[in-house]
Amino acid sequence: MKKLIATFLLTCIIMLCLPFPAKAQLDTLIHQRDTLPELILDNALPQYATDSLMPDLVVNEDSLAAVYAAMTAEMWDDDYFKRFNPSPNKALWYAALFPGGGQIYNRKYWKLPIIYGGLLGLIYGYSFNNKYFTTYSNAYRDLALNSPNKSYLDFLPPGYDVEAKRDYLEKTFKRKKNMYRTWRDYCLVGMIGVYLVSMVDAYVDASLYHFDVSTDLDADKNPTLMLSYKINF
């Protein structure tokens, strides 16, 4: 278990140290290309326009849309910058094959430490509680059946009068056994829950990958003519 946790921590450190690919930056432009956010207008487009596409252009409000269209058109011609369009069904199947597969397919790598951290924590909890459940089960069984193994003596100090406190010890060992079994089962249910949540998250994330979350959601305020007709008989 210690080796497993160490491997997980090392993987997280390596993932955090790796630079994000250029595709991640392009996806930000893609999702907001219709709204032209101020951050892109003030920083990315003027430099891009003056350096690569239109060296002599003075970027202003009138020419900004044309520069942005030219920039995106150039990117779409490159195979590396093709728009990523994830399939919800594929994301669901990848997540079902192994935990985190759907998140990797959707390129949401930052969710992997959350998923694997939850699974590793629950696996450790399952192992810990199962260990004590087995230990108290053996002690309760040996005490109730007067087994020659006498594993219950590992919990008692030397010279402890077992016969005088037999009923108390049987109730205590039984209660501890049931308690650790319940916690172990909770950890198992939690692992299944994390697995199912990762599948749902991958499917929903792929379905809403191109959902417009911009602030440019103004209503259309163009005037229109509304006519009403009334026919009397």
Would you mind describing this structure in some detail?
The longest helix is centred in the last third of the chain and has 42 residues, at 166-207. The chain has helices at 2-17, 22-31, 38-53, 61-76, 88-97, 101-105, 112-145, 166-207. It contains eight helices and no strands. By secondary structure, the chain is mainly α. The chain is elongated.
Write a concise keyword list for the protein shown above.
single chain, 233 residues, mainly alpha, 64% helix, elongated
Structural class of the helix and strand makeup? mainly alpha
Q: State the helicity in percent bands.
A: 55-70%
Report the sheet-strand fraction.
Answer: under 5%
Q: Note the overall shape.
A: elongated
SSE string, helices as H and strands as E: HHHHHHHH
Mean pLDDT over the full residue set: 74
The profile of the biggest β sheet is: none
| Number of E strands | 0
N-C termini distance: 87 Å
Radius of gyration equals 31 Å
Q: Poorly predicted ranges (pLDDT <50, ≥5 residues)?
A: 15-26, 29-59
Number of helical segments with 4 or more residues = 8
Oligomer: single chain
